[in-house]
Design a protein that fits this description.
Layout lengths: L2 H40 L4 H5 L1 H30 L16 H9 L2 H28 L1
Helix pairs in contact: 1-3, 1-5, 3-4, 3-5
C-alpha cells in the first residue's frame, strides 16, 4: 500500500478517536447533570443543582481540549497530504502551537459555545426556578 495513504489513515484514525471522545463526553455531561438535577428534585436538597455547574464547566473545558487536539491533527493531515511520497516518515508529532491560546479558541468556538452554553443556561434556569420557589414558599 502507498506509504502516504497509510500515513493519512493513521492521522485520520486519531481525528476520528478525538471526535468520538468529544461526542461521548457530551453524552456523559448531559447524563451527569441530569442525575444531579434528579437528586436535587428527589431529596429536596437544591444544592445538587448548583453542583451541576462543576461538570458542566469541566466537560466544556475538556471538550475544548479534544477539539484543539483535533485541529492540530487536521493540520498534520494537511501537511502529510502536501508531502511528497518519497518523504513520508510516519511521524505523528503535532505542532500544538500556542497551547493555551489554541485551547481557548477551541473552547469558545461557535459549536462548543452553543452546546455547552445551552447546558449552563439550563443549569442556571433550574437554579433560578429553585430560588424563586424557595422565596415564594417563605
Amino acid at each position: 500500500m502507498d506509504a502516504k495513504l497509510k500515513h493519512l489513515e493513521f492521522v485520520q484514525g486519531v481525528v476520528n478517536r478525538l471526535s468520538t471522545n468529544s461526542f461521548l463526553l457530551k453524552g456523559w455531561s448531559i447524563i451527569l447533570i441530569s442525575a444531579l438535577f434528579a437528586l436535587s428534585a428527589k431529596d429536596a436538597d437544591k444544592g445538587f443543582a448548583l453542583l451541576a455547574y462543576i461538570p458542566g464547566i469541566a466537560f466544556w473545558g475538556l471538550d475544548g481540549y479534544f477539539l484543539a487536539l483535533e485541529r492540530c491533527y487536521r493540520r498534520l493531515y494537511d501537511k502529510v497530504r502536501a508531502t511528497d511520497k518519497d518523504k513520508i516518515d510516519f511521524m505523528m508529532v503535532i505542532d500544538k502551537g500556542q497551547g493555551w491560546k489554541n485551547w481557548l479558541k477551541a473552547t469558545f468556538s461557535k459549536t462548543l459555545i452553543v452546546f455547552h452554553g445551552a447546558v449552563l443556561v439550563a443549569i442556571t434556569a433550574v437554579v433560578v426556578v429553585y430560588v424563586v420557589k424557595a422565596h415564594a414558599a417563605a
